[in-house]
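tokens incoming
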């Protein structure tokens, strides 16, 4: 098969890496790809937002399967465009992608399907936000309805803070129309986990659990980022907890949408808060998580392409996914200054040394090849991923590999996996 992967991050590198191991993959393209992906796939300079350009490329090159990495094209309807043109695509259609594209859609769906989650209210004015705070209390979580590149959620400690956030979102429109509706939520306490499943719109197959670290600094401090590291499995996701998430969140959502005539196909990512009262749904994503995917796919032994084809109705038999029992850890190396301003174009040294270590894979995020060198080209640069006999060893190996890589200004967290290690050690 000829397979096209859309996107340019370490998530897409992990997807391409796993797809390249499939016996079904004969040729892989990636649009636009990056400096690491270029060693496994032919990179083509088409942006993920250029749906017409991607469709034209896939049709012209007789691509058999297109795998969509990021959410924005899914929310824009890339799956509809491909399917309507008779092309196979992995990922949900536009109406189903609203689960990520509209927080208010998810709020309404949660109510209709009876999903466990924080109490939520829909607001379209600063006054309504303030009133919601009186009902839901503080801290108050405010979420811009639409896509905001991961910046659309604010946790407000006071009425004054909520007013400022509401004004920025609704009046100043810092996220454009994405902030015309704001969903206010009760603040939940607990430990977070990411549960990803594959689904064909009827049946559901869970992937290995994982957890990411969103904050820039050690101890989960500082501003939010796209994710500074991850580990799999997440010890907080016991078999009992997974079962509960499947029966109270995932299955009712897939079945409820189907009743509304919306068939959800692809991967569904539930962001779960494990509270004292059980698992609660914080958000859905309609794509693989980044950097969770790097840790999850590093452990997948089965053929990913076959499992993806199942979501598209190619076979009826549920994929039986086999996992490496060993845990994995991914440490993100970022450019100095990220998530604020940073410089690019720094030469990256030591990649071969790191990749030569046993059970280590270095996934590229913001890199490109220039004159035979690999240089930095983004905020998150690399996702250094390792397996180990236990989480501690996986962590040690990942950091050993990180220690072999150098570029000017490199920043990374030194404590990826700490929460899980604490849980394992019982400390
Ligand atoms: P979301 O994009 O909805 O997952 O929000 C991003 C992050 O904000 C989550 O990963 C949580 O850390 C936090 N968050 C979102 N909603 C809540 C909530 N209701 N209570 C506490 N934290 C939340
Ligand atoms: N790691 C969080 C996300 O992919 O949204």
């Amino acid at each position: 098969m000829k397979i096209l992967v859309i996107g340019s991050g370490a998530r897409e590198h992990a997807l391409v890496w796993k797809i390249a191991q499939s016996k079904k993959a004969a040729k892989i393209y990636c649009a636009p790809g990056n400096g690491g992906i270029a060693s496994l796939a032919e990179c083509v300079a088409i942006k993920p937002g250029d749906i017409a350009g991607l469709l034209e490329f896939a049709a012209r090159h007789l691509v058999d399967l297109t795998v969509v990495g990021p959410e924005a094209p899914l929310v824009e309807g890339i799956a509809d465009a491909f399917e309507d043109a008779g092309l196979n695509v992995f990922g949900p259609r536009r109406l189903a992608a609203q689960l990520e594209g509209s927080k208010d859609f998810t709020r309404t769906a949660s109510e209709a399907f009876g999903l466990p989650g924080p109490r939520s209210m829909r607001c379209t004015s600063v006054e309504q936000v303030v009133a919601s705070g009186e009902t839901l209390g503080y801290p108050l979580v405010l979420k811009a309805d639409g896509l905001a590149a991961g910046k659309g959620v604010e946790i407000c400690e006071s009425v004054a803070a909520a007013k400022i956030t509401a004004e920025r979102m609704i009046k100043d429109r810092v996220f454009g129309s994405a902030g015309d509706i704001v969903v206010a939520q009760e603040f939940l306490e607990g430990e977070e986990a990411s549960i990803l499943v594959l689904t064909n719109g009827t049946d559901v197959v869970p992937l290995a659990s994982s957890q990411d670290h969103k904050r820039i600094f050690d101890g989960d401090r500082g501003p939010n980022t796209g994710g500074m590291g991850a580990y799999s499995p997440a010890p907080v996701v016991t078999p009992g907890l997974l079962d509960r998430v499947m029966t109270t969140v995932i299955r009712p959502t897939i079945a409820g949408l189907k009743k509304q005539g919306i068939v959800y196909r692809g991967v569904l990512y539930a962001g779960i808060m494990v509270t004292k009262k059980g698992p609660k749904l914080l958000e859905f994503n309609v794509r693989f998580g980044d950097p969770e995917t790097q840790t999850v796919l590093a452990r997948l032994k089965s053929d990913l392409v076959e499992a993806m084809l199942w979501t598209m109705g190619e076979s009826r038999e549920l994929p039986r996914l086999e996992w490496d029992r060993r845990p994995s850890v991914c440490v993100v190396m970022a450019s100095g200054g990220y998530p604020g301003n940073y410089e690019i174009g720094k030469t990256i040294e030591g990649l071969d040394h790191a990749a030569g270590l046993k059970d280590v894979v270095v996934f590229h995020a913001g890199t490109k090849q220039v004159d035979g060198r690999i240089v930095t080209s983004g905020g998150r640069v690399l996702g250094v991923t390792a397996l180990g006999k236990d989480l501690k060893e996986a962590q040690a190996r990942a950091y050993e590999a990180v220690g072999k890589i150098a570029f000017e200004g490199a920043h990374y967290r030194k404590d990826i996996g700490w929460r899980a290690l604490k849980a394992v050690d019982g400390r």
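note: The mean pLDDT is 94.
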